[in-house]
Amino acid sequence: QKEVEQDPGPLSVPEGAIVSLNCTYSNSAFQYFMWYRQYSRKGPELLMYTYSSGNKEDGRFTAQVDKSSKYISLFIRDSQPSDSATYLCAIGRDSRYKLIFGSGTRLLVRP
Amino acid sequence: EPEVTQTPSHQVTQMGQEVILRCVPISNHLYFYWYRQILGQKVEFLVSFYNNEISEKSEIFDDQFSVERPDGSNFTLKIRSTKLEDSAMYFCASSEVERGGQFFGPGTRLTVL
Questions:
Q1: Is a pLDDT exceeding 80 seen at residue A1?
Q2: Which phi-psi region, left, alpha or beta, contains residue A107 (left: φ > 0; alpha: ψ -120 to 50)?
Q3: Residue B99 pLDDT greater than 80, yes or no
Q4: Between chains, do B91 and A44 touch, taking CB under 8 Å as contact?
Q5: Positive or negative CA dihedral for A56, A98, B91, B39?
Q6: How far apart are CA B32 and CA A95, in angstroms?
Q7: A-chain residues within 8 Å CB-CB of B60?
Q8: What is the per-residue DSSP string for B24-46?
Q9: How would DSSP label each residue in A67-89?
Q10: What is residue B85's three-state secondary structure?
């Protein structure tokens, strides 16, 4: 079983749609969770991070963690064409140790 | 806004040569990392570094790899004898606190010929 699983997409939505991106993970030892956006041939850009179950909101982005189901989500409201990128989930134990990345979901927001 | 910087942006080298990739983490950060991403593949962890020592390293990070924080600002990754399969984007990252976000640099594209 892979440590982190993420649907590769592509996911194509019209501008203004709500986007839902998801990952599952297998090891309950992982306690903190991040979402990154990556444009082609660029570095991952940190969008959200959290280490607890529940929701965390920042502008148009909401991160949701359900540790009992080992399931994490990122919601993007009012999606824009500039949101078109690959979205990576990443999980870890704490800052001394590695992040394990999902394979990324490619998102296309159509004008 | 503070950011992680990396040099060079692109490095081309011959197989068997040594390369040093350089990073300047965000200034008050305490945790440092190297990751790599082969084209079309996942971001893979190489090594984490805290309090002047390696905290964790992956199977990829064998004896050919080393890291150093030679002064208060730079963090380097050295590959002693490059192989074709070392061709990838190499990302440096840093984090301020335990359980803080990891902030990535723009990457160095390493091409081994």
A1: no
A2: beta
A3: no
A4: yes
A5: negative
A6: 9
A7: none
A8: E--TT--EEEEEEE-TTS-EEEE
A9: TTTTEEEEEESS--GGG-EEEEE
A10: helix
Helix (H) or strand (E) holding A12: strand A11-14
Strands A4-6 and A54-58: unpaired
Is B45–A99 a contact, with Cβ atoms under 8 angstroms apart?
A: yes
For A98, which of B4, B48, B106 is closest by C-beta distance? B48
User: What does the mean pLDDT of chain B come to?
Assistant: 95
Contact across the interface for A101 and B106, Cβ inside 8 Å = no
User: Which chain B residues are within 8 Å of A29, Cβ to Cβ?
Assistant: none
Question: Which chain A positions have a beta carbon within 8 Å of B91's beta carbon?
Answer: 43-44
Amino acid letter at A20?
S
First to last CA, chain A: 38
Spatial distance between the Cα atoms of B80 and A64, rounded to a whole number of angstroms: 42
Q: What is the pLDDT of residues A20-51, one digit of tens each?
A: 999 999 988 888 899 999 999 899 999 999 88
CB contact under 8 A, A43 and B106: yes
SS3 A31: coil
Whether B48 and A104 lie within 8 Å, measured CB to CB? no
Q: How far apart are CA A107 and CA B72, in angstroms?
A: 39
Our CA-based measurement puts residue B12 at a distance from the nearest CA of chain A, in whole angstroms, of 16
User: Which pLDDT value is given to residue B6?
Assistant: 98
